[in-house]
Known about the structure:
Blueprint: H1 4-16, H2 21-34, H3 39-42, H4 55-71, H5 79-86, H6 91-106, H7 113-122, H8 130-139, E1 145-151, E2 158-163, H9 165-180
Amino acid sequence: MSDPEIEAMSAVSSAFSGLEDEARARVLRWAADKYSVPLGHALNPGNQIDYPASGADQQILDEGMGVASAQGATAYEHFADLYAAASPTAKQERVLVAAYWFQKVVGQETFRSSELNRELKHLGHYVDHIAEALSANINKKPQLVLQIRKNGAKSQARKIYKLSGEGVKVVESMITLGAQR
C-alpha cells in the first residue's frame, strides 16, 4: 500500500530536480504560505518534525528541506547576520527586520515591542518610540504588522504583535536587494 505523504515528497523532489536553488526557495516559501506552514519554525533544527527516515525517503527530505534551510529564514544564526543582510535604513524597516527575526527565524508566533528593541539595542540600533514605528507599519496599506491583542486598558498597555504576510515579503525583498548590492 502506498503512503500519500511519501508520494507527495517524491513529487516535490521530482519537481525540484530541474530548478535552481533560488527557484526552489521561492517555491518552498510559496507552498509554506499557501498551506500556513511557518518555514523558520518548522525547518529549524531545534524543532524536529517526525518524518520517516528510511533511505529513499530521507533522500527526498534532504533534497527538499536543504534548500529552505540554506536559503530561507533559518540561514541566519544571529540577528546581526539577518540585520546586515537586510540593511534597513529607516526605523520602521529596523522594526520589521527585528520582527522577522522573532517570527520567522526564532519561530515565535507573536512578539512584543520590548523584544524587538532589546535585539536592536544589542546592535546599536535602538528605536526611540518603537510603538510609533510599529503603528506606522500597522497603518500602511497593506498592513505590514498586525496588533493581535493588548493587555491592559491604558495606552501604555503591553501589546502583542505579529508580521502580516506582506510584512514578511517586505523583509524578504530587503534581504534580496541587500544581497544584490
